[in-house]
Amino acid sequence: MASCQDQPEGDSGLDPAASDGVSPPQIIETPPLDETLTAHFKLIENKRTGPARVRLRQWLNEHPDDSRGEFLMGLSHHRDRRYARALSWLQEATRHQPIYPPAWHFLGWTHYYLGNHEPARQAFQTHLEMNPDEGDSHFGLGLLAMEAWQLDAAEDHFRQAIDLQISLPNRIKGVSKAKARLSEVLQLRDQNNAEAIRLLRESVELYPDHYEAWYRLSQLLEKQGMEDDASKALKSFEEARQRVRPQGPGSQ
Predict the structure, then answer these.
(1) The domain containing residue 10 runs over which residues?
(2) Could you tell me if residue 11 is inside a domain?
(3) Which end of the chain is more exposed for a tag (fewer CB within 10 A), N or C?
(4) Is residue 52 part of a domain?
């Protein structure tokens, strides 16, 4: 997903439309967070979302209708997977000043997780109008295209997600996910198992904890009669899943 760290300075001064998913069709830089909001954002990053919200409410009492504070409130709920609560805050952030592009990106994901596919698509597209280089918005559009069985469009978005993030060290997980999804498109549409296997191998090499990709790789290898490789991939799937979602004694 889009990061709100290392904000470039600048405020467009433009007035966004009063409904989410609509904004000026031009590149807009993300305004910086002030020192106080940066501290609150770090609390959210560190999964201290409750204390962050207490401080953000105090900040918003002094800065009503400021999109940056509203965005961070929405982000805190998004991090907690409380998407209905995130939705209202992110919608408010898209209506107020300064125009804050990440609000549309996270609004897209919030709508997606709530099953609101058309508003999600509009929000991702709006974000890309303001920030054409955001690969994770392309990834979101790719998922929506897949679910609509628009596989050519899905392929295009996943390839753009890869191209836009491949050189960014902090986006390796995003590249891994896009390669795995691209492999699924090629397998479903073209029955190109060889290319799907290649992409899945690249996916798990980039991000070894991507256990879903390990599982799909094991299944494809088994279909190709590569039983030894399939067994190794299945073992890697089990190990990765245990790292990401520990089970058994001592797990949370």
Answers:
(1) 1-126
(2) yes
(3) C
(4) yes
**CA 214/CA 234 separation, integer angstroms:** 7
Say which DSSP state 170 is in: G
Query: What pTM does this model have?
Result: 0.86
Question: Both tokens of residue 10?
Answer: 């600048």
Tell whether the torsion through CA atoms of 213, 216, 218 and 223 is positive or negative. negative
Q: Where are the alpha helices (DSSP H) in 16-150?
A: 35-45, 49-62, 67-79, 83-95, 102-113, 117-130, 135-147
Looking at the structure of the chain, the number of domains it has is: 1
CATH of the domain at 78: 1.25.40.10
Q: In whole angstroms, what is the distance from residue 76 CA to residue 45 CA?
A: 9
104-117 burial code (b ≥16 CB/10 A, e <16): bbbbbbbbbeeebe
